[in-house]
Amino acid sequence: MLLFAHIDLTLPLEDPILKFLLILVIILAAPLILNKLKIPYLLGLIIAGAVIGPHGFNLVLRDSSIILSGTAGLLYIMFLSGLDMDMSDFRRNSWRSLVFGLYTFCVPLGLGILAGYYILGFSIYSSILLAGLFASQTLIAYPIVNRLGIARDKAVTIAVGGTVITDTLALLLLTVIVGMATGNVDDTFWWRLGISVVVCIIIIVFLFPLIAHWFFKQCSDNVSQYIFVLAMVFLGAYLAHLAGLEPIIGAFLSGMALNRLIPKTSPLMNRIEFVGNAIFIPFFLIGVGMLIDYRAFFRDWESLEVAAVMIILITVAKYIAAWLTQKSFRLSKDQRTVIFGLSSAHVAATLAAVTVGYNVILGHDANGEPIRLLSESVLNGTILMILATCIISTFATQRGAHNIAMNNAQDDEEKAPAREDHILIPVANERTAEELVGFSAMIKRAKDPNGLYALHAIDNRAEDPNNEKRGQKLLDIAATAAAAGDQHLQQLLRYDVNISNAIVSVARERNITDIVMGMHQRPSGMSAIPAIPGIPGTSGPGIGKMVADVLTSSNITTFIYCPVQPITTIKRHLIVIPEQAEKEAGFQDWLRRIRLLAENSGTKVILFAAESTLEHLRPRRGRRMPANIGYVAFDRWDDLPSLEHDLRDDDCLWFVMSRRDRVSFHPAMNRIPGYLEQYFAGYSHVLLYPVQAGATESRYM
Questions:
Q1: 571 DSSP β-pair partners
Q2: Which residues contact 15 (CB under 8 A, 6 or more apart)?
Q3: 562 DSSP β-pair partners
Q4: Closest CA to 138 of 247, 279, 23, 301
Q5: Rounded Cα gap, residues 75 and 240, in angstroms
Q6: d(C-alpha 375, C-alpha 133), whole Å
């Protein structure tokens, strides 16, 4: 017994190790247990927080450590919602988010004012502030849609954008009403508020991307990049706080600002989501649960009356807003359910508003008791309302999101290509291995973690015993880069008579669909290799003999990539396509890769082609193309250096080549490697050699 005499088990727990251990056990056990009961794990974490909190068994106090972690978790949720958005789709549907934001603000506002003034008998200022509580909402159920992989669904985009709008309006309303109730509103108030909000938004939206782009180009350390992102989130939140907005607005804007620089298939995105879902967000949900006081149910009838009115009216108002949005934009019932679920929960902005309103004292009654802008019954009712709306939100979002995910899975199966993605990445250079893996992840389906193969080939006549060690080191670098992006990569170390033969043999053995190779760098002073007959562009600095042999011996879509800068910092991909490329057999194969690149990276993709070819590149009826793909009529193949005028800093230039002298061949293709060295050496570039059959019939559908 003496061994454990120094252990203090008095409640609440004071030992930080025991407190942290208890919370980790809850985070681990809640999903495992509740999944079997078909209860959303988010609700389980909230209930667990109520059980262990000061109003439950008093195991853990809601002290500064819980508040700090919970605040970080809330900001993380808003940041992820901005980071996960399809920005091209958001721009296209931004007016839908605006309309939903107005619906979900005005409907609860109107019902709240009527309920507060006529049902509960509050003053007009108190009624308006109560209505502001009704209008605000928290994306507490966002992790559900993120886990189910529908974060880029139209309904989620509308709900997330609308949440920012309604929370901003609700918190501005809070600021104005408190100022009017206390007599602090004058002409300078409006100027000060308007200027601070505009300056905050401009700094986050325009300055943050420039700073992040510079940092990511200068720093490749994984830990430093993650810490930098966290710093930007909290800086954005603090700037919003200084401007008189809620910090969650700044966190969301930070996510939108960094959206394009952190592709969803990148290792950095994987780290951000992993840490948030494992630590920060569960801490926030447990902290929300600690606010719930079950004794408020029995404290007084007025609190119960206020809570009942709030819960019923908020649920009805949010459902009406979701229903109006569905009818306005012809959404499905499941999408309506997701919008309703995401907009139902009231935590962050609601707590901020009720706390401010409770602390505003307008005077004192005859007994000396303070007359508050929002009474204690509203404060108690808000706590009950938080519990009820969180339950409604999690169940509604779970049901709607699950149905949408199932429908999307069925659609993916129907539209899936006949062959699975199998991308071979020959690696021979430590400096480019990670970039080749990152490029390969960008052009494959994000939902499929398999299909990457890294190969290092060794000449079997070489006698250097260190060759195998160097090769294994390269493969380990490639595997680590893939694992960081939540991708599985198979390592292949092969001895063969030459490297090109090893690549071609593995391609046949593994049913490879695409090859991604680094561009050959010709040593200074070395003359160019002779052109390979029938393979345009094989004479020059970018194509070595090994690559030329691979192109000659195989008929697989091949990408030859020269990464001048990290692929995550590229702002535009300019893809130059020859006339009649649609008549080649591999047209659909590489076009699908371009679509995946646009979806996974979020970067602007511009297709340069003749008008006749653009007709086949543009989406046909019934087929949706990413909104960030643009189309430019191009007929300057005889003057390719003029493309230099179209290029900007941080562009990547692509040329779609031809393997044989078929219908898409153009004589200028033979001069492209020289152009790359002379005119485009400062830009990342790709030579794309598609599959080409013996005949020229089109495989375009």
A1: none
A2: 7, 8
A3: 685
A4: 247
A5: 12
A6: 14
Q: Residue 129 and residue 135: Cα distance in Å, rounded?
A: 10
CA 406 to the chain's CA centroid: 21
In whole angstroms, what is the distance from residue 343 CA to residue 101 CA? 10
Please count the other Cβ atoms lying within 10 Å of the Cβ belonging to residue 467.
15
Q: What is the pTM of this model?
A: 0.76
State mean pLDDT over 295-323: 82
Task: Say if residue 557's pLDDT is above 70.
Answer: yes
Q: What percent of the chain has pLDDT over 70?
A: 87
Cα–Cα dist 387/42, whole Å: 12
For residue 394, give the nearest of 33, 46, 25, 29 by alpha carbon: 46
- Pairing mode of beta strands 557-562, 370-372: unpaired
Is omega for the bond preceding 667 within 30 degrees of 0, making it cis? Answer: no
Contact call for residues 377 and 306 (beta carbons, < 8 A) = yes
Q: What pairing do the DSSP bridges indicate for beta strands 370-372 and 361-364?
A: antiparallel
**Residue 241 in contact with residue 250, Cβ under 8 Å?**
yes
What SS3 class is residue 155?
helix
Which residues touch 8 (CB under 8 Å, ≥6 apart)?
Answer: 14, 15
CA angle at 599 for the pair 412 and 651, rounded to the nearest 5°: 155
Read off the amino acid at residue 359: N
SS3 657: coil
3-state helix, strand, coil in the chain (%, to 5): 60, 10, 30
Q: Which of 510, 505, 516 is nearest to 482 (CA)?
A: 516
* DSSP-derived secondary structure letter, 692: -
What is the DSSP track for 370-405?
A: EEESS-HHHHHHHHHHHHHHHHHHHHHHHHHHHHHH
Q: 629: phi > 0 → left, psi -120 to 50 → alpha, else beta; which? A: beta
**Secondary structure of 438-486 in HEC code, one letter for each residue:** HHHHHCCCCCCCCCEEEEEEEECCCCCCHHHHHHHHHHHHHHHHHHHCC
- pLDDT (0 to 100) of residue 699: 36
